[in-house]
Amino acid sequence: MESHAQKHSEPSALDANRGMDGDAEGPDTSGHSAHRNEDNPAQNPARESQQSGTIVVKIGGSTLGGSDTTLQDLVELQRQGMNPVVVHGGGKIISEWMEKQGVRPKFVRGLRVTDEPSLDIVVAVLTGLINKNLVASLVNMGARAIGISGADDGMLRAEVKDSELGLVGRVVAVNTDPIKAVMSAGCMPVIAPVAMLAGEDSTDGNDFEATLLNINADTAAGEIAFALSAERLVFLTDVDGVLDTSHRLIPRLTERQAIGLIRSNVAAGGMIPKLEACVTALKAGGIAQIVDGRKPLALKETVAGKTFGTRVG
Asked: Which pLDDT value is given to residue 210?
């Protein structure tokens, strides 16, 4: 198995635990993009080689419905010979199921705490209900798709980012083997963002219950795009893109400008992890975009080069 892409343990706003499109929510405007040994691909032999035609697409429940054509676009991209990799959130549906199960959400400094009862619901809803419904819909529309999660073959390893927030993690390593295995079979990976707790491997071979962690879906998408050296990362969201202080769309941002918007609190809420994930993906040499996924053909036309939303890099 190929070595995992490792990173420093420096805290980062990339670890933010927020947003209805993710599975950990709450506003957080602190921090900045994590620094990596892998920032220069030429100095990192463990980096994946550029995956031609690989496009990581983050989708959330807020964009699926109405005039949205995301799933149709994914099917068409696969038919065209591209390799879409889907990462999905599900915060809104998780909240609904927590309410149904009588699990009351807890918050610390405005951030949701993921305790063990909450994590059970997060894992069940993300890896089961949402993931399998997405896969079934894609297959029914003519795609070849397989649903997996960050726990499969240890795809995502994470550390607890803040003990007060409970079982919420920040990714420290990505194993691309399971993703590439699905793509090698001619299928589209559809990934649920949960992770295994890093450092819990059983060295003596005895059975032992692993700890799963809740991961922000935007963050997971950025880390996976970086590890795959994806040529493009696309966030499909429910706003036009990144907005300035006058609520006007910003069509293009440099990495420095994106970080500046976060530090100055111009970017807020669920836009913060998206911007940070874009910055992460740029380290692999691709491009990153945040577009309004509610518009018909938004994904297909974005990939085709039409100007939509905000491009970072």
From this structure: 75
Structural domain including 247 reads 5-312
What residues pair up with 311 in beta bridges, in sequence order?
A: 252, 289
Helix, strand, or coil here: 133? helix
The CA-based diameter of the chain, rounded to the nearest angstrom, is 59
Q: What pLDDT, in 10s, does the model give residues 84-96?
A: 999 999 888 998 9
Rounded to the nearest 5°, which phi and psi values hold at 20? Answer: -70, -20
Using one digit for the tens of pLDDT, what is the confidence trace for 19-61?
334 555 443 333 333 334 444 332 333 344 344 589 999 998 6
**Cα–Cα distance measured from residue 251 to residue 121, given in angstroms and rounded to the nearest whole number:** 38
- 92 token code pair: 């809104």
Output the 3-class SS for 60-100.
CHHHCCCCCCHHHHHHHHHHCCCEEEEEECCHHHHHHHHHH
The predicted structure's pLDDT at residue 9 = 35
Q: Is the pTM of this model over 0.85?
A: no
Tokens of 129: 């209900």
- The per-residue b/e assignment along 193-216, b for 16 or more CB within 10 angstroms, e otherwise, is bbbbbbeeeeeeeeeeeebbbbbb
CA pair distance 285, 60, nearest whole angstrom: 25
pLDDT, tens digit, for every residue of 158-175? 999 888 889 999 999 999
Measured between alpha carbons, how far is residue 114 from residues 107, 165, 169, 200, 276 in Å? 9, 6, 10, 19, 22
Rounded to 5 degrees, φ, ψ at 217 are: -65, -35
- Residue bearing tokens 């036309």: 301
Indicate the number of domains in the chain: 1
What CATH number does residue 245 fall under?
3.40.1160.10
- How many CB atoms neighbour CB 304 within 10 A? 10
**Burial (CB count within 10 angstroms: exposed 0-12, middle 13-18, buried 19+), residue 275:** buried
**Paired sense of beta strands 5-6 and 194-197, if any:** unpaired
- Strands 194-197 vs 212-214: parallel, antiparallel or unpaired: antiparallel
User: Distance of CA 55 to CAs 162, 176, 188, Å?
Assistant: 31, 14, 11
